[in-house]
Amino acid sequence: MILEKERGFFDNVYTAESFANLKQLMGLWMKDNLKEKLLELYNLKGDESDVIKIGNSKALIDALNRLDNQCEKIDIPTEVKNVYLEKMLEEEKAIFEILNITNKFILEKNNSSTLLKTETVYSAKNDLLDIFSFSKFANYCNENKYEGLIDNIKNYLKEKNLNNTNPLKLRIVYKNEDKKFYLRAHTSTIGYQDFGINFSVFVAFMAINEYVTKTKDEFFVEKFVIDDSKLYVSFGKKNTTKLNENLSLRFALTLENDEIKRNAVSFNGIFTLVYKKGDEESEIIIRPKGMKSNEESFPTDLLTYRHQGKVETVIEKVKNLPILIEKYISQIEKEAEDISNKKNPDSIRELIVKKIRDGRKAEFKQYKAIVQEELNRIRVDNMFKLFELLGSIEKLFEEEDVISIDYWRSKLYEALIEKK
C-alpha cells in the first residue's frame, strides 16, 4: 500500500454545512486538458460558488484532496526494451529498472538520472513479469531461493529484449513523505484516457446535483473508501418508498473506479429493505446483479464508461443517470413487493447457508465459517426475525471490505428475490 486509505461512513442526518460548492469541486486535481474540457462542456468559468446539494459531499472532496497532497501520479510512455527486472523481493514485490526517462518531474526528483530504480506495489510485479511470461516461474524460484537461476533468466530476458520496441505505459507514484517512487502498474497503451477518481466524482456530482434540483429528493454520501488509485462511493437516497404495510425500500447509488484496471468506471445500485413489525424495524441491504432493460434481458450495471474515448461521450452517458435511477428503483420495487408474504422464512435462511457454504469468492473466504455459524445459530419462524438475523451478519465484515460486503448482499438478493 502506498497511501493509507481515506474512509468515510455517514448516516442520513446531515446539515447544509456538509454541502460542497462548485468552486471546491473544480479545485480537485485533474490533468489540465481534462479540467478545461469539463469546464467548457458544463459551461463553467471556474469561480462559481453554487452549492452542490449532496449531503457530506464536502467530506468526500476533502478526502480526495488529502490523498492528492500526499503523492504525484505520473504515467510514462516507454518501450519494453527500457524495463528490466533488477531484483525479486519478498511479499510479492520486486525492483525494476526503467531506462531513458524523459519526464521532467522524475528527472528533477531522481537527480537528473535517466535510469529509475523503483519498487513495485500491489500486483505490478506479476503484471510486468507476465509480459515476459515469467511471472509464475519467477515466484517459484523466489520462494525456493533459486537466486542464481533468476539472475540467469533475468540476463537472458534483458538480452532478448534489447530491441523490443513494443509500447508500454507505466503508472509511477511518487510519495512526498518518503521521497520515493513506486511502480504502481502498467496501463493500457491503446486510447487510454485518464478518467481518474477525481474525474469520476466530478461528473457524478454534477449528475446527482441536477437530479436533486429537479426532483427535490435528497442524496447524501453515506460511505467512501479511497486509496491512490481506487474509489468506492455510495450515495444514499434519503427518501424511502413504502411497498406495503410491512416493507419499505431505500436506494443508494454506488460509484466504483479503478484507475489502473482495464475495467470500466461503473455506477450501480444497492437497496435497503426495511421490515416493520409494530413499532420495531429491522433492515437488510441487497445488491441486485444489475438493471434489466426489459424482462427478458440480462442484468447489467446501471451505467458504465471506459477509460478511453471522448469526455463529451462520458458526460452524455452520465446525464442519463436520473432516468436510469428511477427505472432501476421501479424495477426492484416490483421484485421486492412479495417478500413480506413469504410463508417459510427458515427455508430462505437455509438457502443462504448453502450459498455461503458453496461460494468460491476468494475475498469472502475469511468470513465463511463465522457467517455460517451465525446463520445456523437460530431458526426463524417469521420474516422480521429473518431480517434481524441477516442484518446482524453484515456487522461481521470490515467496513471497508467492499468486495465481501457486496458479495454477501448479492447472495441475499438471490435468495430473497430470485429464489435460486
Which features does this protein show?
nine-stranded mixed beta sheet, single chain, six-stranded mixed beta sheet, 420 residues, alpha+beta, 14 helices
Tally the helices: what do you get?
14
Q: Unreliable segments (pLDDT under 50, ≥5 consecutive)?
A: none
Proportion of β residues? 25-35%
Return the average pLDDT rounded to an integer: 90
Task: Tell me the radius of gyration.
Answer: 24 Å
Shape: globular
Structural class: alpha+beta
Helix proportion: 25-40%
Biggest beta sheet summary: 9 strands, mixed
**Domains counted in the coordinates: how many?**
3
C-alpha end-to-end distance: 38 Å
Short description:
This protein has 420 residues and is α+β, with helices and mostly antiparallel strands.
Explain the overall architecture.
With 420 residues, the protein is an alpha+beta fold. The protein has 3 domains: 6-68 and 194-338, no CATH class; 71-175, no CATH class; 342-418. It is built from 14 helices and 17 strands. The chain has helices at residues 22-26, 32-41, 57-68, 104-109, 124-131, 135-143, 147-160, 197-215, 311-318, 321-336, 345-358, 368-375, 383-393, 402-418; strands at residues 6-9, 20-21, 51-52, 54-55, 71-79, 83-88, 94-98, 116-120, 167-175, 180-187, 219-226, 230-237, 241-242, 247-258, 265-277, 280-286, 303-305. Strands 1, 4, 11, 12, 13, 14, 15, 16 and 17 form a 9-stranded mixed beta sheet that branches. It has a 6-stranded mixed beta sheet with strand order 5-9-10-8-7-6. A two-stranded antiparallel ribbon has the order 2-3. β13 (241-242) and β14 (247-258) form a beta hairpin. α11 runs antiparallel to α12 (368-375). The two termini are 38 Å apart. The mean pLDDT is 90.
